[in-house]
Amino acid sequence: MPDPFTSREADAYDRALAQAFGVRHALCTSSGTAALHLALLAAGIGAGDEVLVPALAVPMSIAPLHYIGAVPVFVDCPADGVGLDLEDAAAKLTDRTRAVLPVHLWGRAPDPAPLAAFARRHGLVVVEDACQAHGTRVGGRLAGTGGDVGCFSTKDGKLLWSGEGGFLITDDDRIADQARALRNHYLTPPARALPLSRVGFNHRLAEPLAAYAHGSLHRFDELLERRRAQAATLAELLSGLSRLTPITPAPGWNGYSALFELHLDQPRAFATLLAARGVANSVGTFHLAPADRRPALAVRPAAPCRRAERVIDTTLAVVVHHGHRDEDLHTIAETIAKEAAAWAP
Fold first, then answer.
1. C-beta separation of 182 from 29 below 8 A
2. Is Ribosomal protein found in the keyword set (predicted)?
């Protein structure tokens, strides 16, 4: 039954998202961060609970843990930077660990089966941050469908976009019922609960944005194909250079950013220079750094996650989006090639 406090457009968008991802429930939200916030609360994560999270993550992925008073426990990545190092994760388990929150940065996602098995062994909830991974498919599954709940962003620049917004997906009826109630001040509670018996939030997606996002969803196959083609174009234009090498993710990757491994001194400074030259990228533009090294995010001191640090510092993740024309991609490639050839810090 539709929620009487959900707009008609948002309700239609929710149904379309559930069908597109092949899940029982989808709930659109005001942002990807809001989706993570709702998912964690709906899954029963609260103050003092420890959650395993990758050091290879943006601050927005970790912030919802702070909102609810949970403790992020940072886990290193494998050498290629895809997924979590499960041996490191196992070493960091305690009797307060309640969940694991993988983050599919740059649209890359690992096979979900090993993490799901790890979570089952240790009784952990899996909340996937697939905010950059719309359409990525690994191990026969779409990113965001391998855990208990998957969370996405539809901010401008994502493959599905509505200016601002997000959504969560799940097959768990209990999580869906709680998230739906919490999304709108707990006005429509689950069965056997009273309205407003729990503090909720205004995490609704505005009706015009829901309509816009729904239209974007209808074009998703086209948008996915275009993003993959854009990333492939930049990789081809910059192949053969000695100072950077295109990174080719596994088949099924959505092409979220064009990725290159840097082979030069002071790569972070180089990324900052590119940003100043108009080439938006994760490090130079958005100041990406290991989450475990950010004092605002790290609740307790811990040994640095060195592989995550190396991956971030040596990866040039070039921002591409639906507005880039072919000539824009050529200009980006020319700028990168010129600055790489001249780089002498």
1. no
2. no
Strands 50-54 and 97-100: parallel
Q: Which of 218, 245, 264 finishes a domain?
A: 218
In a domain, 2, yes or no: no
Q: Angle of helix 32-42 relative to helix 173-183, nearest 10 degrees?
A: 120
Query: The whole model's pTM is what?
Result: 0.95
Q: Clarify whether residues 162 and 291 are in a common domain.
A: no
* pLDDT tens per residue, range 144-156: 999 999 999 999 9
**Do both 147 and 249 map to the same domain?**
no
4 to 11, 48, 116, 171, 177: CA distances (angstroms): 10, 34, 35, 22, 14
Taking a C-beta distance cutoff of 8 angstroms, is the pair 178, 148 a contact? no
| pLDDT score, position 72 | 97
Residues 185 and 39 in one domain: yes
Question: Which residue's structure tokens are 């880039």?
Answer: 324
Burial class (CB in 10 A: 0-12, 13-18, 19+), 104: buried
